[in-house]
Design goal:
This is Glycosyl transferase family 1 domain-containing protein. This protein is of the alpha/beta class. Helix content is about 35%, strand content about 15%. Helix 1 links the parallel strand 1 and strand 2. The N terminus is likely disordered.
């Protein structure tokens, strides 16, 4: 079986920014689908750490993110959470680059196993560490682990430890270092299109058909 991913747009220029602001900023950009994209494990982790706004902030940007306020309130971390309406793609990219960690919420269900989500490729291009909550045995989680792009868990205790680790790094160094450039290798849309073209040529040859050029 062949797998060709969506990939990120390599034509979009990305200048790596190393955020030096405090507190640790965790950013989510996208929509919230109730029952399928649940930030509660992270909220529970932060609640147990008894942190204040000077320690960490979680920013949700999108047209449906206001729904997270109730969840944050019930977990006792409403003071750590802020929401913003949907912004342009360019503005979202800028905010991603200016954040310390990018939050990826996916459905924690085996039916999500083969789903990458286009969002993950946006985050990959921003080169910020990715914190994924969702199905831990799917292709998205596998990509994050294999490329060392960030951390995957739904366990509040594990999430506590990674948040504390990031806070410690930022306090010590003033910033969270970007993911290495080589972590992007092969993940651009151009590279994935080339992969598809090569697959089609192989299939054509296997069938005894003359290979055709694909744009």
């Amino acid at each position: 079986m062949y797998v060709v991913m969506n990939g990120y747009d390599s034509q979009d220029e990305v200048s790596v920014v190393s955020p030096t602001h405090l507190p640790l900023r965790i950013l989510y950009t996208g929509e919230i689908y109730e029952g399928k994209r649940d930030p509660r494990p992270l909220f529970e982790a932060l609640s147990a750490l008894n942190l204040g706004p000077k320690d960490v902030e979680i920013v949700f940007i999108g047209s449906t993110v206001a729904a997270v306020a109730d969840s944050a309130q019930s977990c006792g971390v409403r003071h750590l959470v802020s929401t913003m309406p949907r912004v342009s793609r360019a503005e979202a990219a800028r905010l991603q680059q200016e954040s310390d960690v990018l939050l990826l919420l996916m459905w924690n269900d085996p039916r999500e196993k083969g789903v990458y989500s286009g969002k993950i490729f946006e985050y990959v291009q921003a080169r910020r560490p990715v914190l994924m909550l969702g199905y831990e045995f799917g292709v998205a989680a596998e990509l994050i682990r294999e490329r060392e792009l960030g951390f995957v868990s739904n366990n509040p205790k594990e999430l506590q430890e990674i948040v504390k680790s990031w806070m410690s790094v930022k306090l010590r160094n003033g910033r969270i270092p970007p993911n290495p450039l080589q972590s992007l290798t092969g993940l651009s849309r151009r590279e994935q299109n080339e992969k598809l073209s090569n697959i089609l040529k192989e299939v054509a040859v296997a069938k005894g058909e003359p290979p055709q050029a694909h744009s």
